[in-house]
Every structure is written in C-alpha cells, then in structure tokens.
Amino acid sequence: MALIAVAFYGAFKLASHSIIQQKFAGMILGAGAVLVSLQPIMHASGVQNDPRNLFVGIAAAIFGPLAGIITFLFAATTRYYQAAPSANVCVFSLFVAGCAGLVWRHYTRNAERKREVHFIILGLTISMSYLSTFLLPRDHWQEIFMTAVPVLIATNILGSMVLGGLLERHRHQEKRERKLLNQASYDPLTGAMNRRAFDKEYENSVLSRTSSGIAVIIIDLDHFKKVNDTHGHTVGDRVLVGVSKILQRSIRDGDLSARFGGDEFILCLPDISVSDVTKIVDRIQESIAKFGKEGFDIDLSLTTSIGVYWNQKPQRLEAAFEIADKSLLQAKANGKNQSVWDDRTSFSPKVSNAI
User: Fold this and answer.
1) What is the pLDDT of residues 115-174, one digit of tens each?
2) Which of 54, 80, 193, 271 could serve as 197's disulfide partner, Cβ 3.0–4.6 Å?
3) Burial of 121 (0-12, 13-18, 19+ CB in 10 A)
4) Domain range for 72
C-alpha cells in the first residue's frame, strides 16, 4: 500500500491536469488490484477471495468515476482471465464496490479534510459489495459469510484507513500546492496572470517556438488615479476587472494577458501580422471607451495609452518590454488616448489616435 501511495505521489507530480491524474490513479490502483489477486486471501468452495474490491472502491471514492472505471477494468479483466466458476458474480461485486465508492465520494464531498471515521465508513460501504454473494448457489452462503467475508470486511476497513488516508493526504497536499501556485501566479482582483507568471509563460511558450510575427503590447489606463479619487476604489476595482475581461475577449487562444501592476496591463500576441495587431489595438481602445460610458451609472470617460512592439521573431521579454514601454511613454507624452508603435516596426502605423 505504501508503494502504491509513493507511485501515486510521483505520478501526480508529473501530471497537473485532473483527467490525466485520474488516469494515473486508475492505472496505479488497477495494478494494485491485479497484484493482490495473485495472492488471494483464501478459496472457499471455488470462490476466490482477495481485496480487489478495496482498490476499485478507493479509486472511485478518492479520485472519481474515471479512476474507478479504469481500476475496475483492470480488476475485472484479471478476474475473467482466471476463469473461476464465480467470475461473473465477482465482476458484479467489483462494479458494486466502485458504485459504493462514488456514493461515499458524493456524501463526503463537502468535508475539507477526511477523518478516520470517514474511512471506516468507506471500508464498510465498499463491503456492501459482498452482498453479491447471494447470487452464488445457496449452499455456499454460510461458508463464505462465516470465513471469507469477515476477513474481507476487516481488510476493507483497515485498507481504507491506511491506503485511503495516505492517498487523501497526498491529494489534499497536491491540491493545496496547486492553490498556492495559483495564488502566486494570478492577480487576486482581476484573475489575470501576474508579472511573474507572464514572464514564465513567455519564456516557456513564446521563446521556445518559431513565430511569423510577435507583438508585445502595454496598455495603461489614462487618469485612473482620478477615477479612484473621484468615485472611490470600489469603482476603480470594477474598472480594472472590466478592463481585464475586455482584454481576454479581445485576444485569441494562446495569446498571453497579464496585469503588470496598478492600472497597467500587458499582452503578448505570437504568430500575428501587423494588420491584425492594429485591429486588436483599435478594438481594445473602443471597447474600453464603451465600457467607461455604458458599464457604470456615470460616464467615466475611460481612455487608454498603448505602446506596441512588433517583430518578425520573438525577442527576450526584457528587450521587447523596454521597447513597448518607450512607445507607451511616447503615447502619454503625445497627450494620451492613443497607441504608439515602435519606430523599428516599418510599414506600421506609428501613432493611432483612439476614437
């Protein structure tokens, strides 16, 4: 059981997507179910008894339906391969164990941390699968319930407390680590990436690939301090959240958007032409201006100054940011409410006044 927990922990470190994690968990617990079937607890009247039900139930209870199905398939296939007379009944028992795990998962879904009593109940719930014994010939009932079932129930309870507890602790720790990473990577107000996450994503997904043109755009809200001073920080926060949503709607899948601090946002648009960048910049300015007029009880007269850098090939973020920032400063110096492009971007608009 400890080896299974270690294998699970290592697999979860390599996979971050929940579906992939469920697949890993199902395969690891399925392998455990196969291994325990090689050394059954006992044979009673031709009926093989082993704790495979425990693995199926725990997979469904801790990790969800997909993991439960995968573990069930491992265990059921092995049971059929062994071709015992009671194979059909045993497979049905495995199915009931998985369903029992899902029932436990449903009723404990709101428990932040599972206690020992939860896992004792899980073991008893999985043991309900042994009622399938009544599908066997009547003359086997007494022997099975007197010899095999008590041992299997004890195994399920102890296994749920040990293996289930270990896996649940690992899962809770992984969830907590993911939450902390999310908090460290995203702005809590707008939900946009912060500068640290943007830098990392740029390094990993932009610099590592070829591009037919890349744009780095810095957006700054004009006179945002006046909005806070005049209408309060609550309105100012609503403005920032709204602008962040506008930026997300204005870009494509695969583009990057982040709040760099205060009222400043940054975009990275890989594989894009100058003409498409122009359209996106214009759309952003128009959408933000419209939001300032229609998104509040009063007209906030929101405008933006935008600095644009475009190049045929990706550059280091520090260099691209510096050039876009100089363009932004030029836009502000020119009177704000406009976009300014880097002079190195030939055949592009150098200054574009917003409507």
Assistant:
1) 889 999 999 999 999 898 888 888 878 877 887 888 889 989 998 898 877 877 777 777
2) 193
3) middle
4) 2-185
Which of these three, 185, 220, 244, is where a domain ends? 185
Contact at 8 Å (CB) between 255 and 267?
yes
CATH number for the domain including 10?
1.10.1760
| Measured distance CA(239)–CA(338) in Å, rounded | 19
Q: Domain for residue 190, yes or no? A: no
Q: Are residues 173 and 247 in the same domain?
A: no
Residue 348: phi and psi, rounded to 5, are -130, 155
Find out whether 105 and 64 touch, Cβ atoms under 8 Å. yes
Q: Which residues contact 263 (CB under 8 A, 6 or more apart)?
A: 220, 221, 224, 240
Residues whose CB is less than 8 angstroms from the CB of residue 35 and which lie 6 or more positions away in sequence, other chains included = none
- 57 and 87: one domain? yes
Contacts of 169 (CB under 8 A, 6+ apart): none
Tell me how many domains the chain contains. Answer: 2
Backbone angles phi, psi at 313, to 5 degrees: -125, 150
- Is the dihedral angle over the CA atoms 24, 26, 29, 30 positive or is it negative? negative
Which pLDDT tens digit goes with each residue over 38-66?
Answer: 766 554 455 556 788 999 999 999 889 99
Tell me the average pLDDT across 58-85.
86
CA distances from 149 to 44, 47, 60, 79, 145 (A): 11, 12, 21, 18, 5
- Residue 79 CA to residue 274 CA, distance in Å, equals 62
What is the distance between the alpha carbons of residues 137 and 140, in angstroms, rounded to a whole number?
A: 6
Copy the structure tokens of residue 68: 């439960």
Residue 329 lies in a domain: yes
Query: What's residue 112's pLDDT?
Result: 76
The answer, yes or no, to whether residue 3 has pLDDT greater than 80, is no
